[in-house]
Design a protein that fits this description.
Oligomer: single chain
Low-confidence stretches: 1-102, 104-114, 118-130, 221-227, 290-308
Helix content: 10-25%
Strand content: 35-45%
Shape: rod-shaped
Length: 603
């Protein structure tokens, strides 16, 4: 029995026919090689036959195919057991294999991974002719030394002859071709020096050989020093490679993370939200004023900066920093940056605004410093892209003001409105059409309600309580008479006492009895007269014909009609007692005139 590392081949010293039947039954050889076994079985095997494959990769649980190799040693043909690991590079010259072994080789060849496009088993078999691998241009393979377990890269066009202790672990595969405006991500990239050349592994010196076995092992190992086959890798890291003039292969240990991807084109009014997960230095476009504050501006560049609104400065990004890549532009990815999400600008239509809130302390597009949580309105029409430290709360629509509708506003905090009027916290005021046609409430104010216009005709008046004077000062508890014809809006806090009233019109036979609630001076009705002082509780009558609007300090007691009317003498009496006396006086006068007439006429 013959046993070796990684495979197991058993040859029983049986007659040739019996040995052939056993091998055919287990499927290791076909019937074409049975004649050779019959010929070899006629004489005894003079020595043990070992597997020619020094490092078979098959496990002991798998069957090791037994192959037949014709080698001339003098005049005798020898038959030996060969272990096959499934790789084309390990086949000796002139080897004949079974159908089962060929299927095993095809499955192992197709299971290898890496960049590029692998050749089919038929093509590989054509390229591997006579123990030589003919590697075409722009193809590469990975060759591993099974003694040192170091893997090197072979690039075509080239003819490769693998030694007995070497095997091809990857390929042949086509090199990676990155077209313009594309990129790919390589996992576990190679370490490169300042010139861009890969850095190779340096092995420590081998120990001194103590016996013949150690000397043989040392001879099999690679020479001490810099190995031009195995490269150093940045394990766990990623590297982005852009378009190159020539195709490039993947070194042993490298792998393609994803596929070849096209650059992201950022359209106008869009942006990419980026986040840094490593510390690096970047270039950012900032306003000139901000660049001066950061000390990046020089005296020689003052004239040039005055002609432009922005400039590029170097910014040191920290892990976790976020910023926007504005379009229109083409985004070229970097390994230190990850794309969080695409952003789209919001279009601000006429009579609308965007309510924006600061996520953290920042400066807005107008250069105004904002605190975290602060809100403000953006009313400029057009596309607006919120900054990385801003978020859009809502869209605010303007309210249309007419001659009949006004807005009553309430100040949430002290501020100065768009009309340069200072308002205290809690103050309320009106915005009318005389001030603006459309109004968008600002962040520090809110709309309480809409106020309809109050219309007075020429025959109406009303009494306002808690009115405002011409200076905007409110007089609490005071009353004011407003006479029509007039249109006005009730200011916040004002109210109409008793609703709209009609002006009192008195005829010749009518009068009003009035009483003063408080002391005041009555304005004279005729020019040149002095004001009349009325004390509280004073009663008097206003006789017609006239129009009467009682002052706020006066209460109308009653409206009277004349009991005695003498239009010729303009005598009118309204009190009952006076009317009785007037009637008695009239009767006495009539009686006296009657007596006088009798005397004259003699009747």
């Amino acid at each position: 029995m013959v046993k070796h590392q990684g495979g197991l081949a058993v040859i029983f010293r049986l007659p040739g026919a019996a040995l052939a039947m056993v091998l055919i039954s287990v499927g290791l050889v076909n019937s074409e090689v049975t004649g050779s076994f019959r010929a070899a079985a006629r004489h005894r095997l003079r020595r043990r036959h070992h597997c020619s494959h020094h490092r078979c990769q098959l496990y002991l649980s798998q069957r090791c195919p037994i192959l037949r190799c014709k080698e001339k040693e003098g005049k005798n043909n020898t038959t030996r057991a060969v272990c096959f690991s499934g790789l084309w590079s390990t086949l000796p010259t002139g080897t004949r294999i079974t159908k089962k072994a060929e299927d095993k080789m095809s499955s192992n060849s197709s299971s290898n991974s890496g960049g590029g496009r692998a050749s089919s088993p038929a093509v590989a078999q054509q390229q591997f002719s006579g123990g030589l691998l003919k590697l075409p241009p722009f193809h590469y393979v990975h060759v591993q030394d099974v003694n040192t377990l170091l893997t090197r890269l072979e690039v075509g066009p080239k003819t490769i002859r693998c030694a007995a202790h070497e095997r091809i672990v990857l390929g042949p595969k086509e090199m990676l071709i990155i077209p313009p405006r594309h990129y790919c991500i390589v996992k576990n990239p190679v370490v490169r020096d300042d010139a861009g050349n890969p850095v190779f592994v340096e092995l420590p010196p081998a120990p001194e050989a103590k016996d013949a076995a150690h000397q043989q092992l040392k001879a099999l190992q690679a020479p001490v020093g810099k190995m031009q086959g195995q490269v150093k890798l940045r394990h766990g890291d990623l590297e982005i490679r852009y378009e190159q003039e020539t195709p490039f292969p993947l070194y042993p240990g490298e792998s393609l993370h994803g596929g070849i991807t096209q650059f992201t084109v950022v359209a106008a009014n869009t942006a990419l939200k980026l986040r840094a997960h490593r510390e690096f230095e970047d270039e950012a476009e900032v306003p000139v004023a901000e660049a001066k504050e950061k000390g990046k501006d020089k005296e020689a560049d003052v004239a040039q900066c005055a002609m432009t609104t922005t400039r590029l400065i170097k910014v040191k990004r920290q892990p976790g920093d976020e910023w926007l890549f504005m379009g229109p532009a083409t985004y070229k990815p970097r390994i230190e940056i990850e794309v969080v999400a695409p952003c789209k600008a919001r279009v601000i239509l006429p009579d609308t605004a965007l309510k924006v809130q600061a996520v953290r302390a920042c400066t807005d597009y107008k250069g105004v410093a904002r605190k975290a949580g602060e809100q403000w309105l953006v009313k400029t029409e057009g596309a607006y892209m919120p900054a990385i430290d801003e978020t859009i709360v809502e869209t605010v629509k303007a309210q249309v003001l007419t001659a009949k509708v006004a807005l009553q506003l309430h100040a949430l905090e002290s501020f100065t409105d768009r009309f340069d009027v200072d308002h205290k916290k809690g103050e309320e005021w009106l915005v009318t059409m005389d001030m603006t046609e459309t109004y968008i409430p600002d962040v520090p104010e809110e709309v309480v309600n809409t106020v309809n216009v109050t219309t007075l005709t020429s025959r109406q008046y009303c009494v306002l309580r808690d009115y405002y004077d011409e200076h905007g000062v409110q007089h609490f508890g005071a009353l004011k008479i407003v006479r029509g014809e007039k249109n006005f809006f009730l200011q916040p806090g004002e109210s109409i006492v008793g609703g709209l009233r009609e002006i009192i019109v008195l005829g010749e036979e009518e009068a009003l009895e009035l009483v003063a609630r408080e002391t005041y001076e009555e304005e004279p009705t005729a020019k040149g007269r002095k004001p009349i002082r009325r004390s509280a509780g004073t009663r008097w009558m206003v006789e017609g014909p006239c129009e009467c609007i009682p002052p706020t300090e006066v209460v109308v007691v009653r409206r009277l009609h004349a009991l005695v009317c003498l239009p010729c003498c303009r005598i009118y009496t309204f009190e009952p007692l006076v009317s009785l006396l007037a009637w008695l006086a009239v009767l006495w006068v009539v009686w006296m005139l009657f007596k006088l007439a009798r005397r004259i006429t003699g009747f």
